[in-house]
Structures are given as structure tokens and as C-alpha cells.
Design a protein that fits this description.
The complex is a heterodimer of chains A (about 300) and B (about 775).
Chain A lengths: L2 H19 L31 H5 L12 E4 L23 H13 L13 E3 L10 E5 L8 H13 L2 E5 L3 H15 L6 E2 L22 H9 L16 E6 L5 E7 L3 H6 L8 H20 L1
Chain B lengths: L1 H5 L3 H6 L1 E4 L5 H18 L9 H22 L2 E8 L4 E8 L14 H9 L5 H9 E8 L3 E4 L14 H11 L5 E8 L9 H10 L4 E5 L8 E4 L7 E3 L2 E12 L5 E8 L2 E9 L7 E9 L3 E8 L13 E9 L3 E7 L4 H9 L6 E10 L2 E5 L15 H4 L4 E4 L9 H12 L4 E5 L35 E7 L1 H4 L33 E3 L11 E7 L5 E10 L2 E6 L6 H4 L9 H14 L6 E5 L3 E2 L3 E9 L11 E7 L5 E8 L6 E8 L3 E11 L2 E12 L13 H11 L3 E2 L7 H5 L7 E7 L4 H21 L3
Parallel strand pairs in B: 3-4, 3-6, 6-7, 7-34, 9-15, 16-17, 16-19, 19-20, 20-25, 27-33
Antiparallel strand pairs in B: 1-2, 2-35, 4-5, 8-10, 10-13, 11-12, 11-14, 14-15, 17-18, 21-22, 21-23, 23-24, 24-25, 26-28, 28-31, 29-30, 29-32, 30-31, 32-33
The chains are: A alpha/beta (about 300), B alpha/beta (about 775).
Amino acid sequence: MRLIELIAVTGAIGVVVGVVAGADPHPPAPPVESTTFTSVHLPDRGADALVTPRARAQQAVDPSHDFYFTRVAYSGRRNPWGWGGGRGGGWRTDFPEAEFYFTQLLGRLIEIDVYTDHGGVNVLTLDDPALRRFPFVYIVEPGRMSLSEAEIRGLRLYLEAGGFLMMDDFWGVRETSIVEEQLAQVLPGRPIVEIPLDHPIFRSVYEIEEIRQVPNIRNGRNVGAGYVGARTDEGDHSEIPSVRGIMDDDGRLMVIINQNTDLGDAWEWAEDPWYPLDFSTYATQVGINTVVYAMSH
Amino acid sequence: MFEFLFKYRPVLFESGDFTFRTPWPVGLVVIAAVIFVGVAVLTYRGTGRKATPADRGILSALRIAALAVLLFSLLQPTLVLESVVEQRNFVGVLLDNSRSMTLPQEGGGTRADFIRETFGAEGSEVVDALNERFSVRYFHFGNETGRVESADALRFDGTRTDLASALVRAQETLSSVPLSGLVVVSDGASNAGPALAEALVPLQAASLPVYSVGLGPERLDPDIQVDRVELPRSVLRGSDIVVDVPVTQRGFARRSATLVVEDGARRLTEVPLDFGEDGEAVLARARFTLDEAGPRALRFRVPVQEGEEVARNNARDLLIDVREDREKILYFEGEPRYEVKFLRRAIWRDENIQVVVLQRTADGKYLRLDVDDGDELVTGFPRSREELFQYRAIILGSVEASLFTADQLEMLADFVSVRGGGLLLLGGRSALAEGGFAGTALEEVSPVLLEEPAADPRSAYTQVRVRPTPAGRAHPVSNIGEAILPEAAEVAEGVDLDDPWATLPPLSTMNRVVRTRPGASTLLLGTTPGGEDRVVLASQRYGRGTSIAFPVQDSWIWQMDATVGVEDQRHERFWQQLLRWLVEDVARPVSVTPEREQVESDESVPLTAEVLDSAYLAVNAAAVVASVTAPGGTVVETPLRWTIEEDGIYRGSVTLTEPGVHTIEVVATRDGETLGSSSSFVQVGPSDEEYFDAARRTASLRRLAEVTGGRFYTPSTIHDLPEDLRFTGAGVTRVDERDLWDMPILLLLLLGLIGAEWGYRRFKGLV
């Protein structure tokens, strides 16, 4: 059995488990009259087998909402589907729990018509035309991202049209250089700049006074447990978190890059009693601020 | 012929009363008539067996008719006329002194030539005849009305024709003398002053007949004319203008020409014209952008074609104020929505539009964007009229009615009706009927009817493919530029790629809006997948302001969708035009309006200013000064006085001399505090208004004469005028009886009847 076939079988088993588990806490979406946007529309490379059971169960997204947390399924450096990079799972890191919890929090904390059906899952690839219907996308663990020509072009057009990209959870010098190299291909000539704390994105809903490092679940639990020597970074000179970005011609953020931090884990594990609450609170505030900024600027 | 048969001209029969002058008693006449009939019948009873009853009937009838004519003559028919006493009455002759008199007259020469030859000091048959019977007083009319000695004093330089005022003035001037009538010599065009109908009432009340003499040909052929062009008084810099220009023609059937729109030496656009049948008007739709601030003198011109009767009616000049203001619009949104982002991006580089966003992010928590200072909107949506009325327009997004207090809803309604602001209602799950606005003060303001909302707005979600209505096509808001599609765009068969609306992706709505209020205008419609039409853009005037509904929720799709090219500007242009329209003609606390925007040198221009305070309540105790800046830089100040009749209205006038565009700035102060200022523009220069519609208005002149009891003449029939004027019945008159028994028609009739009787008998062998 070749590797790709193994993956497909594994995915199929996952679908069955997911359906039996009945993890969807929400009523089904009402029938819609017209166009729907097919989610989980992945390249024809067998990668759809990688999608979790919850996502696979979803056939169509109710298009009537104002906001969708849209996760980008991108190609990875180690293989064409962005997984198996040695740590986490590429684009599907924290999936689907991160969006489940984050969209729930969004709906609770601010006045927003957020899509929460099917766990709030909405996964698209960068070369999918349907991506342009969702002006906010999230890329996690881009440290091993290796975009195809079609993906580069798709993301470039998406951003130039007015889309907003949030990047999260990559660490250290090596991964940073990969992200920078990938973004340089997407938006050649546009520098990545530090976003100062007086930027509107840190004021759109919550007042963010400092850039904090949000650890992954393992480090976070260690910190929460008060272990001596517990650390929040992940090595390779990743001790200092930063928020950087790429601006358009009018000075608006097109891309926000959360470096040396793992907001997605903090969303995913927001209800974990061992994960420190202040990290989740901070990550949720940053996420909400980013969403509101992306919807208003 | 009439005069030959009936002895007198028709006008005498129209003016006089008919009677019999016979001294015989009525009974005697009846007896005589019976005897005549009896004799006629008896005569034919004994005509022998040859005559049939039909023959006897016909012959009896002919004889009775002949005897009736004879009896009619014996009864001495008489026409009783009221004729004027010679040299005891006056006649006012009103001569058109406007520039249109320099245009050609039928039969050669100009209309002015005819007036000079007919009413000049040297006299003419008409003038001599008038002078024999009347004291004649001459008046000139055009811009103004006055007395002249004769037509020789006329210069035919009037830039307008105010016929109604001229009639009133002449009647008033001659009110103290016995007046037999007024004579109007004109082409009938009255393009200034009150409506002609207003002048007719006092004339009818005084039983004063008007005799009109129509000059000029009934149609100008060949000729091209640019008809009336309507432009807004002022627009924001960068605004698109769409103007429908009607062009009429005679003699250029199925030929082509070009309409040129110019701003000074700069050509803004050209529109090809393809004329239809002779006399048919074509409508040229000119679209252009005004991107230079200040007063712009626009010219709409069709180049003069060879042989045209009038060359100066081929161009229309209009003044438009292109404002460099930064118009402040408040966009109140009830939740984070991409409409906020993409609307802001659409007007990001527009220096003339400032959209201040107040967006609710959580209960009692608001995001403020593009405010002028930290205090602006810090407590949320404005709670006072002064705070709300500082904005020129309001956009309401998906925000439910319950978020407002009753006072705030009333204020919003007043914002449109009293303040004259623009209100744009967007669609959304908490907007319009779904937002609970039915039954609130805003319901009446909405140009669309609020239907019964669905229990769950999401169930009403549908997509709509948007298209302009015919009214929308003629509106700047539909001028969204060309479509730029992606390289690999797949366009469905039959889609018109030249129509920028045809390739726009569908939008969505949760508000079922299918009807507009009476009087509202629908500019965009949307078709659902089920084929139902939805209102997508509608507007209405509400009080002093305008309300617009755009009940869709994701116009940003027009920017983001993959079927739209990244360089495509249709979304941006739509919002730029929509917001410009929203703030167009929005009132200011202080405004000034000149009565005319184009005047001749040394002409007085009445000014009207309105002064309101920051709550848009009228102020009567203000000091209002108009500063007029001439093109050369000279500044003259004129105070404007409050008119007691109307609150907040101040009037005055200025006289402008220097050719060019004059700036009139009005500043109002109260107790040393400036209430506001406003400016307007007036252009001084020669006007071509008189050369438009310069053919003879026969219908108008004929009606003027007929409703007052006068008559209509042309140059070829004017010689009857002096005689006709004798029988107007107005002025000092005497009774004049004219015999009718000797009318040739009676003799001819009698001979004819007798001859017919004799001929019939011969024909039938009854002789």
C-alpha cells in the first residue's frame, strides 16, 4: 500500500468516527435558496483525505453569514499537502477545535454574525475561486509552507482584491525565513514591517498593551503547572514574539504575521484547565481585534 | 368673398348683435308668413294631373323658401355694433424688443425689419389707419417694459422676453384712459417672468381684448437646436454627471451629427447623434466627470451644420459649482460587516468624502473610525439635533430600531425632512422591516415599503442579480465604468460584455423589498434565482432631503469575487457615485440663491438667502451680508434684509457689470457669532436664450387673443387690424347699426330659388 492510499483509508475511517461521535453541537443550517459555497475544496492530489471527519461531513456552507473563520489548506515543504513536517500538522494544526472555540467566542463576546454551524469549519485552498467570498483567511504553521504557483497567484490576487491574511504559529529563525521567502513570492516588493502597539489593530475592540508569547499546549501546561524552567518559546531563537505585517499602498494591513507565538493552540485549548487562562484570554483578544480590523479596514 | 356676399367682414358679425328693425308687430308678421305659405301651397294645387305629389311638395318648398328670403329682407335685418368713437380712445401697441426679432421673417428680411417698417415713425398704412381712429401708445418689451415713441427707438437687444409682465404693465399704464385694446407684435416666445396665464386674468376681468400679431416662420427649417439641459447646481469634485440632452432638428432627417460637451477649452465628452425622421428629437446621453473645482461654465454644443436658419441655438451654456468640500457622512453599523471595510476602501482616496464610522462591536461598545477628534461620537449615536445635524448624510447599516431611542428616531426623520440631509438605508439581518423599523418615525422616510418580516431573517436569504432600470441608466449612480474581468474569466453565452452591470456577480439580501412608496424612484432591480424582482436601489424626496434604500448586504462581492478583475473599479465607482448623490443638494445652515445664474451686464440680480442655526431652526435676527467678488477681484458688499413674510429668509439684490463669473458669498452672524456662510455664482455675459424656440408660437398668440376677445394676425393680414379694432366694444363707443337687407347673398339666394323653381317645372314639363 502506497503512502497516499494509506492516508486515504485513514481519512475515511476518521469520517466514520466523526459522524458517530456526532460532535456537532449546533442545529443544521437552514436550507438556502441559491448559491452555496462548497467548502473543503482541496486540490486533486488526494489531500482531501486529510480533512477531519467534522469537515468532511460538511458539504456546503450556509452563505448568509457575515463572518467565516476560513482556514487555508496549503501545500507544505515536506510533501504537497503540508503535513508531516515533524511538528504539528501544517495547515490542519489545531483543526477543527481552534475554529470551533474561536468562532463560539467571537459570537459570544462581540456583536457579529459569525458562522458557527458544523463547528465553524470552512477550509479552502488558495487556488480555489471560492476563497474570494471570504475576505478573512487564517494560515497556521506556515513555517513549512511551500506554495505552488497557482497558490501563490491565488493568494496574491486575493490580497490585492482586498482579502486579509492572518498567519500564526511559526517559530525561530528557520521558519521565519521560510515564511518571508514565501510571502516575498506572493507579494514581491512589499516589505514585512513591525506593527507598533499604537496601530489600530491593537485598539479595534480590546486594548492590547503588550505583545505576549502564547505557548503551545505542552509548554502552556508546564507554565500553568508552575514547573521550574517551563518555557514558552520553541527554540531556534524564538524567545521574543512579534507581530509584523504587510501593508497595502494605502497603509492598511493586508497580512498580519504572528511570529513566535501560538494563538491557535490558545483558542483550541481555551477550556483546558491546565492551560493558563491569561494566554487564552490574550489570544482571543488578539484574534477578535484582528477579525474586527479585517472587517473594517 | 365673405365680405362680397355678406357686405361686411366676419369680425363685424362676431362683434355685433343681430336684430330686425321692422316696425310691424310680431302678430302681423306671423299672419303674413302663414298667408305666404298658404299662397305657395294653393298655387300648386291646380297644376294639373301631370304633377305628382312629390313635384308639388318640392315646388311648394322652393316657393316658400323664396318667399321666406323676401320676408327676411322686408323685416329689415340689422347688425348692431359698438364701434369706438374716433380719436376718443387709446390703443397700446406692445413691440417685441428681444434679440429673436433679429431672426428671419417669412418672405425675407428680419422680424425687426417688419416692426420698423410697420410701426416706424415714417408710418405705414396700418399706423395711419390706427392713428386715424385712436391715440396710439407704443411699448417695448423684452427684459423690461417701457414706453417708446415709435419702433425706430427699438434696438432689439433684449436677452429675454417677459410678455406677461409687459401686458400687465401696459394695462396699468393706460388704466386711466379709455382703452380699446392692446396689440402685441411678437414671435410669441415668453421665456422670463410670470406665466402668460397669470396676465390673462386681469385682462379678462377688464374685458380688454388683446390683438396679437405673430412674427417669424412657424418652423425653422433647416435647423438643429439643443433643447433644455438640466444640471445640478453644484456637485462634489470628481462627481460623474449623466445628462440627457434632447436635440431637435428639421431638415436633417437620417443624418448624423455630434454633441460636444466642453468645459472652457477642454472637451469633456462627445456623443454621436443619429437623427431620425424630420422633426423627431433625439436624446443624447452625455456622461462626464468634473474633476476641477470652482464654477465651471459648461457648453453643450452641436457644431453648426451648413444652411441652418439659426446658428445660435446649437449650444447651451450652463454654470455648475464644482465643490472642493469634504462632505462628512456618518455610517452607523450595528455589527462588524465587510460592507464597512469595502465601503471605506471604495472612497479611501476620495478627498471629497469623509465617512465617519460608528460600528457597534459589543453591547454598548463602539468602534469609531475616521472621527475628527477624540470626543466625536464618544457616547455613541448622536443624542442631540446639533450633533446629528453636523453630518451631511447618514448611512444606517444592519442596526435594529430598538438600539435607538424614540427621540433619536424622530431626529433621524427630521434629519431628512427638516435638515435636508441624505439618508441611506442598507440591507441586513437587523435592517429595515427585519430590524423592527415598521411603525417607527423612520418608516415613512424609507423609500421602500417595509413588508412583514420573516420570523428568521436567514430564511429570507436570497441572491439577486442586479440590473439598472431605465431610470437607473439615466442616473449617475449606474455609471460604474467598464468591467475588467480576470484573464481566464468564463462569461455565459448571451451576456453583453459592453454592459458593466451584466458581468457583476449577484449580491444577497435578507430583506424582502418588492415595493416602493408612491413617488419613489427605483434605479436598480435584482432578480432572484426564482425569477422574483427585488428593489435594490430606490430613492425618494422626503421633506427637504432625500432617502435612499440599498437593501442588499454584501456589495463588497462586486470587489472581491473571483469573477471580477482585481483592477476592476466598478465597486469603487458605484459607492463614490452613490455617496456623492447622497450629499448632493444637501442644505447648509446658510444658503444663497441668485434668481438667475446668467445675466447681462448691468443687470440686477435678486438674491435670496436662508439662515438657519445649527439645529436648522430659522433665524430672523441675523446680520446677513453678501460679498460679490467680480472676475477682476473687486469686492462689493450688500446687506440682505429679513423678509417679514417668511422666517429665516433674507433678500437683496446686486447689480453685476463686469463680464465673467462673479462669486457671491453670504455670511450670516448673530450677536457676533458666525452662523454660517455659503457661496453661489452668477455669470455675466451675452445670453443666447432668445435664439431658442425662435419659431412663431402661433398657438400661444392665438390663445392670448381668443381668451381676451381679440384676434390673431400675421403680417399678411395685419391690414385688417385697424378696422377690427373699431369694434372691440372697449373704451368710448357708440352704437352703430348696419343694414343687412341689401346683402348680395339675399338677392342671390332669392334669384337662385326662383330660378330653381322655374327650372324644375321646365324639367318636369309642368310649364
